Amino acid sequence: MHRSAFVTLLLILLSALLAGAVPAASQEAPDRRWVVLIQGNLAGEMTLRKEGADQIWSVRFNDRGRGPDLGSRISYGADGTPVKIETDGHDYLKAPVRERFVRDGTRARWETGDGNGERWVEGSAFYLSADSGAPEQALLARALLGAPGRTMALLPEGEAHAEILGRREVGVGDRLEDLIHVAITGLGFTPQTLWLDDKGALFAVLDGWFTVIPEGWEPVAEILRSADEAAEQRFFAELPERLARRPDTFALVGAAVVDVDKGRLLPSQTVVVDGDRILAVGPSGSFPIPEGMERIDARGKTLLPGLWDMHVHLQPADGVLNLAAGVTSVRDMANDMDRVTDLAHAWDRGEALGPRVILAGILDGPGPYAGPTTALVDTEAEVKEWVGRYADRGYEQVKLYSSLDPRLVPAIVRAARAHGLRVSGHVPQGLSVPEAVALGFQEIQHINYLFLSLWADEEGLDTRTPARFTVVAERAAGVDLRSEPVRALVQRLADRGVVVDPTVAIFESMLTTRPGEVQAAYRPVADRLPVQVRRGMVGGGLEASGELAETYRRSFRKMLDLVAALYQTGVPLVAGTDALAGFTLHRELELYVEAGIPAPKVLRLATLGAAEITGRADRLGSIEEGKLADLILVDGDPTRDISAIRNVELVIKDGMVLDPDALYAAVGVRGR
To answer: Is 264 left (phi over 0), alpha (psi -120 to 50) or beta?
Structure first.
């Protein structure tokens, strides 16, 4: 589903990266044209047309039926800062966008979906649209490079700084470009890199899944991406020495320890850690602590195993964000193979900071709604090749996607079983959940597919498209969960031991967020986030108003009720997010409690339960002698108030001691 960092942020941020521009403005031929690539596949375009002193930008791309179509007219002053911006169109989820900015001397005013504002400004200040992307960031980079100290105030708030990372000459055929590699800090969790030409104009932006590059220059994208990744690696490589402590042995004294298996709280315990292992656990005072051993006073706090997020799509900053939130293990459910394995290895070796990673590789079929991947299969031979490739790279699971030809599912299951891999995923178009389970699915991603299965026989329902969201939003409210079809579906999942990965927090954002509102998952933390990330948390829901908006809210409540029915019937659940790292998992667990699952049971499924499903319960998931030292210390009792998991005061991963506030500060997040 890829809704994010990620907003989920993954696609919240990616859509913000590529927005800020103008499609419907004019039919005249553009002065410049860029292509938008998703995992190397053509997905759309961005254009620039100059009209007098104004720049007219447009961007549109298609990501499985989603994607923005935005247009902006930008006028800027002698110092390179905008004096007028007009943006219209629709955002990634097709919600309307209308934004206006004007600066008249010292007065700056703006109208946006996240509210109107006004400020009196002296000197240079750069306004970034709520949907700012490559065009505005390029203008900002050029303005910063000409500003004193390469630093400038931002509007509505904040400050940005630019650094030149280097220059690089690239060529295609007989064409050459001398490029400037620039990093901008102050916008998001990490420096935003982009490439300018020798005149200071935008050349390319490359970020994870997405690439924006001039048409015809696609062959140099990998060269530029490698330079971006090297800059990222330098940024994160210096964090372990600065932020991590590795004492040989230490004791956490006086904490209440959560016994996640039995769902109870053990008061006043001492836990001794030796290297990366738990050496001893018991009531404080029941065994001696050697003289000279470091003691951490944990009285009045609660110690629990590190949390698991079982549905992520990792980006480099996610390592720090997850650890700061107490997430010490994750399962990546689809990514660029080289990128994610490099991240996982760097985190395992301590070259950067991040959780343990389990890898799941995506498989989809070609077509207009294909997922953002190069792993597109249309034959059994291609299936065997890709499954073998994933197995060779240490993957433990394959995730089937929506456009996959159902006739290939048996071949995928056979190949996966031959390599010892689990099989999970979306339910491909043309299959129902019971049919997918009969073919060998061991897990279903996203709660919406269980609802869609109720209408699988309907002609014209294409679950490859955004209909997989809108149809559920419109109809789930009216589903009787006590009806025979629903009860039979849930019981079948329970009888077969099929795991469900609900990802309800992203549906809460999608179905309940209205224009101008901060998405529910991030309301407790929005004011702590970097300015452009925070602005990206406003809106982002499916467009609805009046009675339809109320229907969407009731449909989301029905999703929670179905999660409760799954739990009560014995269907194994895992906690996954598919959104902004760390913070979203806290909300996911809160929603399970709102659904009616007791908090101690929620803690179990997010720790020991995940370890059991991934075959790691012998060394992770609970606080026991001999297990790996992945622990978090929180203020409060999450067995009574699940929201106490937001109050992480200390994180221990593999025996490495980390301060969450210092981790957050490293990626621009303010402390609690």
So the answer is: beta
Give residue-wise pLDDT tens across range 471-519. 999 999 999 999 999 999 999 999 999 999 999 999 999 999 987 889 9
Enclosing H/E stretch for 60: strand 54-61
pTM of the model: 0.90
pLDDT in tens, 216-261: 999 999 999 999 989 989 999 999 999 999 999 999 999 999 999 9
Instruction: Determine the Cα–Cα distance for residues 643 and 333; give it in Å rounded to an integer.
Output: 26
The CB density around residue 205, as the number of other CB atoms within 10 Å, is 25
Q: Which of 624, 509, 516 is nearest to 578 (CA)?
A: 509
Q: Which two tokens stand for residue 524?
A: 């407790």
Cα gap 653→139, rounded to integer Å: 41
Mean pLDDT across 644-655: 96
Distance CA(390)–CA(381), nearest Å, equals: 14
The residues, any chain, with a CB within 8 Å of residue 78's CB and separated by 6 or more, are none
Q: Which of these, 595, 602, 519, lies nearest to 557 by C-alpha position?
A: 595
Name residue 284's amino acid. Answer: S
Average pLDDT, the chain: 91
What is the C-alpha to C-alpha distance for residues 441 and 423, in angstroms, rounded to an integer? Answer: 5
The DSSP output letter for 478 is G
How many of the other CB atoms lie within 10 Å of CB of 342? 16
Q: Position 24: which residue type?
A: A
Tell me whether residue 261 is in a domain: no
Q: Note whether residue 386 is domain-resident.
A: no
Contact 505, 521 (CB under 8 A): yes
How many folded domains does the chain comprise?
Answer: 1
Angstrom distances, CA of residue 238 to CA of 80, 232, 233, 318, 351: 34, 11, 9, 16, 8
Question: What does the pLDDT read at residue 25?
Answer: 36
* Residue 227 falls inside a structural domain: yes
Enter the tokens of residue 203. Answer: 């050349």
Please indicate, yes or no, if residue 203 is contained in any of the structural domains: yes
Q: CA 202 to CA 566: how far, in whole Å? A: 50
Residues spanned by the domain of 105: 9-237
